[in-house]
Amino acid sequence: MPTKTCINIVWFKRDLRLHDNGAIEFAIKEKKPFLFLYCFEPILLNDPHYNSRHWGFIKESLIDLNNELLKYNSKILIVQSDIIPTINGLLEKYKVQNIFSHQETGLLVTYNRDKSFNRFCKNNFISWKENINNGVQRGLNNRDNWNELMDVFYAQKPHVFSPRQGQLISIGAIENLEKNFKTIDLTTDAYSPFQKGGRTMGLKYLKSFFENRHANYMAHISKPELSRKSCSRISPYIAWGNLSMREVYQEAHNLALYSKHKKDLTAFMSRLRWQAHFIQKFEMEHTMEASSINKGFHKLKKGISKTYQNAWKAGMTGYPLIDACMRCLSHTGYLNFRMRALVVSFFTHNLWQPWQEATTHLSQLFLDFEPGIHFPQLQMQAGETGINMLRIYNPIKNSLEHDPDAQFIKKWVPELKNLEIPFAHQPFIMTKLEQEFYNFKLGKDYPAPIVNLESSRKNASDILWQLRKHPLVIEEGKRILKKHTIKRRSKNTQNTD
C-alpha cells in the first residue's frame, strides 16, 4: 500500500479571507502542504437562524477567495457535508497531521459540533489548533485585563498571506478530491438587493468610507436613510471574516492621526471595540442564546401573540417607521443600530412579546448576523439585563427626529407616499375628511395601529421597573457587572455596559 501524503488543513468558517488570518499563518509556519477547506454544513444549512441571503454572501466570498488563489494554482475544497465525515473522507487519501481554524463564538449547535470534532481529532491523532478571532479571548472569568489584551491584539502587525512555493494543494489535486464529495453550486443572484460578499467588495466599501463617507459618520449615524451611506457598511464583511477587525482598526487609527474628521473616526474605532466587547460577553455567557443573562428575568412571562408578531414581521403595525424598518430590513438585510434597537424595543415592550420570539426572524434578515452581537443586543434592548438603562423607544418621536421629511418612510411604505409630512409620520391622526381629501382610508390602505403606544409603554415600564427591584435581579446584576465590567477604558473605548 502506497504511503499517504502528510498534509495540514485550514478549515474556513467565519474567517473568509487570506490576509491577516491566524489559521493560515499557523499553516504556513508548519512548512507542510496544506489544503483549504470550507464545509456547507447541513447542521447550519438547516438551522433556523440562517437564510439564503447568508449562504449567497458566503458563496460570493468563496468565489472571491478562489479568484485570489488562482495565482497560486490552488483553490478551496468546497463540500456540502458536516466536518467529521468530510475529514473522514480526506483521511482515505491523506494523512492529516494538523487542522487549523479560528475559535468560533457561535451558536450552541456549533459549540456542540466543536466538542464532537475535538474528540474526533484526538481519536484520529490529529492536532486541531484554533487561533483567537478578532481579539475575543476564550476562558476569561472577568474583564480585569481585557482592554490590555485588546490593545496588544490591535497593535500586532496583520499577517500577510505569503505561502511557500508548492505549499498549497494544487487545483488538479483538489478537483480529483471533489469527485469523492458532494459539492455545491456556487451560483448566486447577481441582481439581489443585498451587499455582495467577498474581500474585494469589502475593501471597496472600506476604501470609500475612509476616503469620504466617514465625514458624516456621527451626524448621520442614527438616521435611517442617511446612515446607509455615511456608516461604513462593512459589518457583513466583519461578520463573515472578509476583513479582519485588526486591519480595519489600524487603518482607521492611522487615518485619524491627520484627518480633520478625527472625532468621526474615533467614534468608529470605539464601535469596533464595542463589537468585540459584546462578542466577548457572549463567549463568557453562552446561555444567552436561549435565556436572559440575568436569571432574575427568567420569571418574566409574556403571552405570545402570532397576530402581533406577524404584523411586525410584515411591516404592518400601523406605525410607519417601524413598518419601514422591517420592510427595508427584509429587502436589503441592513438597518442602522438605532433602528435595530427601535424594532426590538417595539416588539418586546409595546407588543410585549418575548425576545426569544424575535431571534430567528431577525437573524435570518440581518445579512451581518453575528451570534455574539445578536443575543446580547436583543436582551439589552428588551431590558432584561438588569444593568443597562431601560430604554423604550417611541417610534413617533424617532420618526420625527431622524426621518423628518419622511423620506425613509415613503420609500419603504409607499402607501403613505402621497400624504403630507405630518400624516406620513402619523396617518392615524387624520380625520375622515382628511382621509377623503387624500383618497386614503386608514384600515384599508394602511393598517390602524395594532397597539396603543402610551398604554403599552406604561405597562412594560411598570412591570420591568418593578422586577428590577427583585433581590435575584439585583444579585444577578452585581454578578454580571463583576464579570463583564471593563476596569479601564482607553481613549478610543467606551464602556458599553
From TrEMBL:
Keyword Flavoprotein: yes
Cofactor stoichiometry and binding remark: Binds 1 FAD per subunit.
Residues that hold FAD according to the record: 217, 268
Keywords: Chromophore, FAD, Flavoprotein
GO molecular function terms listed in the Swiss-Prot or TrEMBL record: deoxyribodipyrimidine photo-lyase activity; DNA binding; FAD binding
Cofactor(s), by name: (6R)-5,10-methylene-5,6,7,8-tetrahydrofolate; FAD
Photolyase/cryptochrome alpha/beta domain: residues covered: 6-136
PANTHER family xref list: CRYPTOCHROME, CRYPTOCHROME CIRCADIAN CLOCK 5 ISOFORM X1
Protein name as it appears in the record: FAD-binding protein
Organism: Algibacter mikhailovii
Gene from which the chain derives: phrB2
